[in-house]
Amino acid sequence: MGTIAENIFSQKSGRRASAGEYVVANIDYAMAHDTTTAWAIEPFQGIAGSAGGNGRVWNSDKIVIPFDHAVPAPNVAAATMQKEIRKFAREQNLRIVQQGVCHQIMSEQIVLPGMLIVGADSHTPTQGGLGALACGVGSTDIALVFATGKLWFRVPESMRVSIEGRFPQGVYPKDAVLTLAGQIRAEGAAYRSVEFYGSAVREMSIGSRMTMANMCSEMGAKCAIVPADEKTMEYVRGRKGAESARQVHADADAHYIEEIAIEVGQMEPMIACPHDVDNVKPVREVAGRPVDQVFIGSCTNGRTEDLHVAAALLRGKMVADGMRLVVVPASQLIYDECMRDGTLSVLMQAGATVCNPGCGPCLGRHQGALADGEVCVATSNRNFQGRMGSPKSEIYLASPATAAATALAGRIADPRDTSTR
Amino acid sequence: MGRAWKFGDNLNTDLITPGRYNMTTNAAELARVCFVEHRPDFAQGVHARDFVVGDRNFGCGSSRETAVIALKASGVRAVLAKSFARIFYRNCMNLGLLAIEMDTDGIADGEEVELDVESGSVRNVTRNEMHAIAIPHAMLALEREGGVVGFVKKNGFDALAGLFGK
């Protein structure tokens, strides 16, 4: 009867939930970070301190506060906000985790298939890569959840995206999801749940599935879900609650508002050009454009597999003269893995600056801001005007392979033209 | 009555409060940097009861509530747009700033606009044109209490659930 979103909302609200209806649902985990938590404290105190409330969070074990947007604090303003949050966390016995990007931390440590997650960050749908339903909200919504463990939702319509075929050499899931963005545009999944199917998705690693779900935020989606499978269960094995975790799938007669099929067999590397995520072109059409900085990292493409792809292209070579290559592993775990297997060494020998895990330069606060007229190719998810610095700078979004090839060339480059030894 | 500040489609929240300007929990400070780079004359020129008028997908991108706080602290009466991004829309509801879906082609930058919540209309005073609008009950109920915190304090969380269709 239901889509994955309908079935999860049914389980979490205790009633049959169909698209278009409003439900109040029980939240499995709530997440907020070093910016959005700051604005949640006062509304939380207003709500939890009001009649009937005891001033305490609903369940301190179910709330995670990763510090990732600007850590270590780059200035006094950020340090002051973080200090306020630490005080709140101490009072409420909440966990602050400073080990990388919030979505990566949640996927590595917390999330299980079938969970309902809310996060005070727009890229929360990333957890859909693990078969969970995860929605981004603002600070006041997360304050409501901190206080009550519940939130109201409009049950979303779902769209079904099938991705079939085998990726050619040099072409990656990021290219597929950029293709989707170019096709359905920045509002193409607004208020919807996106479900991913197809042979290419089944073949994808959990990290790549997270890349797909992550980018759906840029198309307006409420959530994006890759149905859980054996690979998902293997990924979450050993974490709290994993033994009793249940995959939630769509029923055979589920209704989809739109169905899209994408074939990757003939796909080529794609790139989102300034200043919109849906301004997507084949890389070869903009190849040769001079680039000042390349950023490899973020909740979209800062995982071990992404750094491996970059290292394979950069091994034994040097980035172009004047090129700044900024690499930010998405978490401590990834940083450690890539340190131990030599990946970071390869990247550094090629001229990369490897920064501590976190959001890095993605949102323009530190670790690689752009000046007037500068151009950056990034593996992240947003190329909004001024996102990474000056409003007169430009951001292109691409796969780690395209980013690495570009770092070598000093110009936008198609990774299929870069040899790997 | 207030002035219309007109913006284009896919207006993202980074343009309202850019990442490097919103490391503060001071609403007045956010009002000072509202549209700081995208529309530098906004913060100086905006008056209480002015309108921010967008196109499609207004407020897309980051979940940052600072965008809504900055607009509210600037005195903006309501945001009018053809459609809203979902987190921005929820943030407006929660903070008690009216976000009204309507065809905004009939409003140009600098024109005078009047909102009548009771009769459900937006009047372009400059052109003397009337546009019928429908504001959801929940949006209005929350706006009356200055946002969801005021509403829940007064009525409790269960009443919040009751605002939405069964």
List keywords for this structure.
heterodimer, A: 421 residues, alpha/beta, Aconitase, domain 3, 2 domains, five-stranded parallel beta sheet, 15 helices, 32% helix, B: 166 residues, Aconitase, domain 4, seven-stranded mixed beta sheet, 7 strands, globular
Quickly describe the structure.
The complex is a heterodimer of chains A (421) and B (166). Chain A has helices spanning 4-13, 41-48, 76-92, 102-109, 139-148, 173-184, 199-203, 206-216, 230-236, 283-286, 298-301, 304-314, 332-340, 343-349, 400-409; strands at residues 22-26, 29-32, 63-66, 95-97, 116-120, 133-136, 150-154, 158-164, 193-197, 223-225, 258-263, 270-272, 280-282, 293-297, 324-328, 352-354, 375-378, 394-397. With 421 residues, chain A is of the alpha/beta class.
Secondary-structure blueprint:
The complex is a heterodimer of chains A (421) and B (166).
Chain A: H1 4-13, E1 22-26, E2 29-32, H2 41-48, E3 63-66, H3 76-92, E4 95-97, H4 102-109, E5 116-120, E6 133-136, H5 139-148, E7 150-154, E8 158-164, H6 173-184, E9 193-197, H7 199-203, H8 206-216, E10 223-225, H9 230-236, E11 258-263, E12 270-272, E13 280-282, H10 283-286, E14 293-297, H11 298-301, H12 304-314, E15 324-328, H13 332-340, H14 343-349, E16 352-354, E17 375-378, E18 394-397, H15 400-409
Parallel strand pairs in A: 2-3, 2-5, 3-4, 5-6, 8-9, 8-11, 9-10, 14-15, 14-17, 15-16, 17-18
Antiparallel strand pairs in A: 1-7, 12-13
Helix pairs in contact in A: 2-5, 6-8, 12-14, 12-15
Chain B: E1 2-6, H1 13-16, H2 27-32, H3 42-45, E2 51-53, H4 66-73, E3 78-81, H5 86-95, E4 98-101, E5 112-116, E6 121-124, E7 129-132, H6 137-144, H7 148-155, H8 157-162
